[in-house]
Design brief:
Length: 47
């Protein structure tokens, strides 16, 4: 069977997107933690 380059590219793209989900989730957690730290600092400063 001949390999279809479009199908191979599509499968590769899906694999990359699936792997990227963990990265995006981790980045979201980092942003949330940063926001909480800023909020705590502002409260301590009396803002």
């Amino acid at each position: 069977m001949k390999k279809n380059p479009i199908m191979i590219a599509g499968i590769s793209l899906v694999a990359l997107l699936a792997a990227g989900c963990n990265t995006v989730e981790g980045a979201g957690q980092d942003v949330e933690a940063t926001g909480e730290a800023i909020e705590e600092s502002a409260e301590e400063a009396g803002a």
